[in-house]
Amino acid sequence: MKKVLFIAVMLFGFFVSAQSDKIYKHNGEIVEGKVKRVEEFTIDFVYEGEDAENTVGKYAIEKIVYGKSGRVEEVTEKIIINGEDDWEKVVILEDKSYIAGLKKGEEVRGKTGLINYHTGNTGDKKAEKKLKIDAAKNGCPFILLTADKSTVGASSNGLGGSQNIKKGIGYKY
């Protein structure tokens, strides 16, 4: 009886330690493997049965269920864009590692006119708003910023005004 109990305890310990972590992505995909590190904006993991480390951005992840403990770690809430009116929900990202696990969409652009009465700060905010509206029209909750240009004075236009131009690539789940 002691041998059976010993073997049962050993097998239970083996199966508990062999359970893999599950990463639930916002697109419905479930990744099984071992979470190595949870950084501020990314998660490093290894697929089940592999050694190579992979990185996925936290924006693509809903939650992680750890295999050993069963603990559930909520990572990010899904951002749902239903159209242009949801432009304020759009998140601008500036590092390529943050978009890992998201699907590339179309290029988006926001700029102020050549002749305008905006100061540098308000012109920048207006260009950012236009950029977000363009992404929301395409159903993209994320933008990877690829260009952020501001010109002031004679280098902008002959009238001495200012112009702000922002470009990026939209990303979806």
Average pLDDT figure = 85
Q: Helical content, roughly?
A: 10-25%
Strand order of the largest sheet: 4-3-2-1-5-6
Count of individual beta strands: 10
Show unreliable segments: none
Question: What report would you give on this structure?
Answer:
- This protein has 173 residues and is α+β, with helices and mostly antiparallel strands.
- It is 20% helix and 39% strand.
- It is built from two helices and ten strands; from the N terminus they run H-E-E-E-E-E-E-E-E-H-E-E.
- The strands form two sheets. Strands 4-3-2-1-5-6 form a six-stranded antiparallel sheet, with no helix packed on it.
- Strand 3 and strand 4 form a beta hairpin.
- The protein is elongated and about 90 Å long.
- The N and C termini lie far apart (54 Å).
- The model has no long low-confidence stretch (mean pLDDT 85).
